[in-house]
Amino acid sequence: MSETNPKFLSERLVEEYKRQQALFSAQPAIVQRFLEVQGKQIAEAIVEGESQVRFSLPDRIIYTIENMDQAALVTIPQNQRVHSVGNIMNRVRKLELYKQLRHSLTELEQSPDRAIAVATSMLRYAAVMHMVSNMLPAGRTVVYKNTDEDEAIPFIPESDELEPESAITAATYAIAEEGGAE
């Protein structure tokens, strides 16, 4: 089967999802919460169009070490935990954070230090899970547009002018405020 075949790609993605889910579930609860908070921070920076995002890898993770059959708790060195992607000049240059973040995460996932690579893959998983579980709209269909020829899967939602305005922010309701200085 060809790698461009949608069925093959779908099967591969499901397999990778299950692997990441199992790896994430094997972590202590405190590490899971840490990764969820960092993933949320990354996801919201991407969606809100921020020019920079800072994130940290956990201090320790559990994974199966090569040449061993059982999982071990491995510490990630302090000097390799904190990362920053993007800067204020990127907004001026119109560089999109998600592209820089994708590059940085890919580099970290290819680290010769397996603990850093595994922690980064779980961080990416946590960010995606936050987007899917907490940021995607529920109960309505969303159509995504493909904006970049580098991306195989469209991810930016098309705007829908026919969608009704939110009742919370509509000017016809008493709770809507204009010109508030909060």
Brief overview, please?
Helix content is 44%, strand content 13%. It is an alpha+beta fold and 182 residues long. The longest helix has 22 residues, at 114-135.
Compute the number of strand runs. 6
Q: What global shape is seen?
A: globular
Helix content bin? 40-55%
The succession of helices and strands, N to C, reads HHEEEEHHHEE
On the 0 to 100 scale, the average pLDDT is 82
- Show unreliable segments: none
Q: What proportion strand?
A: 5-15%
Distance between the termini: 57 Å
Question: Which structural class do you get from the secondary structure elements?
Answer: alpha+beta
Major sheet summary line: 2 strands, antiparallel
Counting DSSP H or I runs of 4 or more residues, the number of helices is 5
Rg calculated over all Cα atoms: 20 Å
- The spatial strand order of the largest sheet comes to 1-4
Compute the number of structural domains: 1
